[in-house]
Structures are given as C-alpha cells and as structure tokens.
Recover the amino acids of this structure.
C-alpha cells in the first residue's frame, strides 16, 4: 500500500525559497579581495539568484551542462551555488590549488561548458586556452570581488558577471524536476591516480543540509553566525552555504583570507559563533592569537575535519578561549559529513580524560549515515573499540559510483556500501575512531602501526608544531616508521630521545622509530586542501636514501 504523503521533490530551490521568505533580513557578509566588507540579505540573495538564472539561460546553459567555478569563498560564488543547480545544470567547483595538470584533466573530464572565474585567478585559464586548449569550454565569466588587476592573459570569450547581472530580469520561475537530478560535481583531491568525480544530487544536497542542521549533526541553526573557512571549492565548503540558508544562519564568507589575521578580524567584527575548517587553519589562527589579542568571546564552536584534530588543539582552544572544538569526519564521496564527535549524555559523568578520549574520536555517525568495519576478507568486525578494519558507509548522501569512471567501481560493494579506504575501530558506544588511511598504515611484518596515532603522540611534546609519520621500506621488517618533526622554534634543539620517550608511553618497543629515523624539518608538504601530503614526503625520503 502506498503512503499518502505528498511527492514533494527535495530541490535546492526549496532551500533558497525558505531563506528569502522566512529570513529576508538575515545577512550574508563577505570579505572582498581588496579587504572591503560587503553585506547582502537573504532577500537580496534571492533576487540576485533569479537574475543569475536568467543570465545562465541566456548564455545557453542547458539542463545537465557542467558549469565550473574557480573562485574563493565569496558572495558571487554563493549565488552560483544556487542559480546553477536551480536551472537544472551542474555546479562544478574546481579546487584552485590543484596542480595545473589535474585542473586540465578535471575540466576535460567534466566537459565543463562555462567557467565562472575570479578575476584574480583568471590568468591560468588564458594560459590553458592557449595550450593545451580546453575544447569543451564555450565561454568564461569573470567574477570581480575587488582588488584584482586585469589578467595578463585573459581567457576568451569572457563576459563580466556584474554587467550580465545588471542587464538581467529578476523574474524567474523555479523549474521543478526530479530530485535525483545532478546538482553538483566535486573531484577528490587524488593523492594517488587521477581525481575522481563525485556527482551530488538535489536530494542528497537537501538531506545533507538537514543533517548539518541537527543538534547532534553539524549543529547549524538560525541563531548561529557561521564562518566557513573550508573553501567553497572543497566539498561545497562541507555543505555549510546550503545549511546556513536552510536554517537562516548569518553567513560570513572570508574571501581568500584563510589565515590568522583576517579570520580573527572577521570573528571579532561579525561576532561569529561557529567556524569550520581543517586543523592547519586553526593551528595558524592559534599561533596568531599568541601574538595579538582579539575579542573572540562570541565564538563557541570550531568544527574541525579533513584530518585528525590533535588533542592539543582541543585542549588549547578550550583552556585559553573557552571554545569547543568539535571533531568531524567525512570525504568528498560523503558530501562530506559522515560522523561528528559530540559527547553523549551517557558520558556526562565521566572524568575529563575519558571524555576527551571520546571527543578525540571522529565521532558518532550522523542520522542518515550507517557505518561498519570489515576485515581483509570483508567479514564484519565487532564494535569493541579494539579491532580495526576498513570503514564502510552507506546513506542518502553517500556516492554510489564515480562520475564517468567505471574503472573505479571497486570502491563500491555489490550490496550497496562505499569503501572509504580509512581504517577504523568503533567503540561499543558507537564512536568511530580512525586509525589511519589504508595506504598510510605502517605495515611492520604482520603488524600495523597507525601513523596518525604516532603523529598525535609526538604533538604532545611542547616544542613540536607539526609531525608526520610515514613508512620507510626495510629489508627485515618490511616497513618501519620515520617521524618528521617541525619545531615551534626552529632554532631550539629537541633531542630525539625526548620524542622517543613520549612515544614509548603509548607504543610498544618494537613499534618505535629508530633514533636516526626522527628527522627535524622546516616544514611539511601539504595537499591542495591543506592536509599532510604523505605521498610527497615518502617520495622525498626515497630520493634522499636512493630507495
Ligand atoms: P577529502 O575527500 O579530500 O575530504 O578526504 C577525505 C579523507 O580525509 C578521509 O577519507 C580521511 O582519510 C581524511 N579525514 C577526513 N576527516 C578526518 C578526520 N576528522 N580525522 C582523520 N582523517 C580525516
């Protein structure tokens, strides 16, 4: 028997309509390229999005076309987030920090027909158009967020975003289509092989936005003032632009200012209550706050994900500023929010150390996401907090295939789960604790050593700013750990024995690196999304040793 509820399609237009009707007065604040702060309301956003929808149709954008963006966290980028999917096209947010070769690959693979590019970044497209050429791209539209000179090699033909918008009508009817229609395309940051495309639908985007607005999920709500520091070119800024509009939260967009000073200024001036980004960002902000003081009393929560939140980060922000760091896990393939670490009421009476152990895990699966762990033979493992296996996930905002990439089909099981490539144990209380990426584990003879656990242990040393642990091939042990350490004060000496002493508190003797495998370096290479680039670290070590 069929239920008798409305067949109401979950479209991105429903998010915008709610924002403009229910929260017409709430603000979207952006920091422009020239440092100027500009504001619009959700009512104005609605009007500008309708104009942009007309611009897109007049340019010749058809349903299903891929429309790329190459831009910072800006107001005009936000307008594209709505207008492109609302005309039935697919918003392809290109990561501006990818190597040139990967950008060429991605644009060609997605067959982008239009590219909306920030004027400060447009030069690259002029160069790529000259060689090797981007045959699918029909035209470029320049977004001007202030402060950028004319590009030396402009792409062509190119239109001006503001001129197009000024000439367009504000009248537009939101088309209605199947909620499973593709809405957004993001490519994985590919630490091995070519990037893979993940194609979000309207339905998955709306459901994911709802999960971000649950108190036990992302926790977004009308009373929040949100600052997404995670780039809008990386997994849709973790879905925050959509969830903020859905619940009417004030949204603060930092432009290209992803580092300490502009962030601290924005938090203070706009009374930000909740900010989100990768650990590197919060490390840099913390360093800046040691040098200059700001009024950060409005900031209650920092959402951290993308790589593990170190214990020191959670403790320092809580102790020095009264800010709760919430640890979350996700992937491009999971839209991205999969798990969020909030303390259960069950643990309310626990002592501080035990509570911290839970908060340091990647957290509980958010409602809508199911998780399990399996061994090498795909047999499900118990949730005993000890046994670790590959983490598999499923749910309405988890990818079921990669875009146009049948060769990558192995990531999806026949019975509908996605293989994350992450190794995890799950606590009896349901908290997922990642131990490593499958490919980053150190496989010493038959035993595994978690590089992430070892990094976190090293970070407990007061003089250590960053640490990376990678495998080095070894003729006897197969692989052994090498530990690279960046000191807070580069001229201070840290004897390797001190690092070993800290490690010995957590690791068995056979797991420890040799003293000569503790290396002090000036900095560590990062990927395009600010994570440790272990592939480059391994390559550099191999070329040093000739291995
Ligand atoms: P990306 O698709 O670029 O967002 O990368 C996803 C990967 O980042 C995951 O598979 C994890 O390996 C890693 N990751 C994401 N969040 C966390 C976290 N909270 N702790 C540890 N690793 C994480």
């Amino acid at each position: 028997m069929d239920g008798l509820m409305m067949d109401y399609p979950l479209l991105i237009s429903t998010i915008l309509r709610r924002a403009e009707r229910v929260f017409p007065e709430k603000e979207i604040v952006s920091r422009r390229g020239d440092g100027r702060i500009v504001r619009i309301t959700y009512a104005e956003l609605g009007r500008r999005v309708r104009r942009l929808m007309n611009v897109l149709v007049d340019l010749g954008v058809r349903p299903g076309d891929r429309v790329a963006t190459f831009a910072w966290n800006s107001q005009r980028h936000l307008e594209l987030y709505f207008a492109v999917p609302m005309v039935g096209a697919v918003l392809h947010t290109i990561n501006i920090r990818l190597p040139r070769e990967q950008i060429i690959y991605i644009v060609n693979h997605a067959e982008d027909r239009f590219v909306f590019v920030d004027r400060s970044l447009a030069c690259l497209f002029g160069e790529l158009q000259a060689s090797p050429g981007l045959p699918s791209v029909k035209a470029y539209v320049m977004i001007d967020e202030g402060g950028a000179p004319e590009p030396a090699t402009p792409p062509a033909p190119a239109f001006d975003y503001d001129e197009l918008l000024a000439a367009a009508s504000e009248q537009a009817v939101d088309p209605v289509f199947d909620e499973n229609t593709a809405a957004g395309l993001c490519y994985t940051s590919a630490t091995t092989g070519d990037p893979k495309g993940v194609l979000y639908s309207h339905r998955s985007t709306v459901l994911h936005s709802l999960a971000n607005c649950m108190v036990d999920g992302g926790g977004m709500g009308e009373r929040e003032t949100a600052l997404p520091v995670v780039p809008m070119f990386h997994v849709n800024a973790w879905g925050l632009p959509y969830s903020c509009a859905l619940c009417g939260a004030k949204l603060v967009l930092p432009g290209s200012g992803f580092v300490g000073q502009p962030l601290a200024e924005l938090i203070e001036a706009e009374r930000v209550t909740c900010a989100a980004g990768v650990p590197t960002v919060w490390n840099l902000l913390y360093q800046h706050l040691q040098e200059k003081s700001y009024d950060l009393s409005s900031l209650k929560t920092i959402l951290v994900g993308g790589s593990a939140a170190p214990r020191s980060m959670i403790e320092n922000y809580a102790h020095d500023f009264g800010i709760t760091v919430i640890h979350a896990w996700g992937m491009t393939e999971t839209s991205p929010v999969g798990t969020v670490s909030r303390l259960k009421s069950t643990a309310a009476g626990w002592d501080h150390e035990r509570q911290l152990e839970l908060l340091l895990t990647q957290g509980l699966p958010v409602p809508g996401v199911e998780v399990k762990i399996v061994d090498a033979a795909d047999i499900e493992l118990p949730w005993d907090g000890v046994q670790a296996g590959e983490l598999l996930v499923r749910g309405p905002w988890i990818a079921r295939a990669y875009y146009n990439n049948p060769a990558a089909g192995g990531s999806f099981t026949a019975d509908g789960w996605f293989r994350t490539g992450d190794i995890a144990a799950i606590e009896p209380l349901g908290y997922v604790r990642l131990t490593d990426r499958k490919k980053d584990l150190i496989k010493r003879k038959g035993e595994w050593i978690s590089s992430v656990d070892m990094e976190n242990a090293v970070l407990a040393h007061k003089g250590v700013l960053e640490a990376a642990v990678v495998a080095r091939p070894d003729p006897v042990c197969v692989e052994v750990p090498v530990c690279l350490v960046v000191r807070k004060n580069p001229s201070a000496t840290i004897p390797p024995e001190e690092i070993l002493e800290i490690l010995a508190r957590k690791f068995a003797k056979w797991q420890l690196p040799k003293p000569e495998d503790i290396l002090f370096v000036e900095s560590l290479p990062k990927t395009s999304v600010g994570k440790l680039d272990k592939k480059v670290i391994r390559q550099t070590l191999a070329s040093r040793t000739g291995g």
Summary: The domain at 441-545 is CATH 3.30.300.30 (GMP Synthetase; Chain A, domain 3).
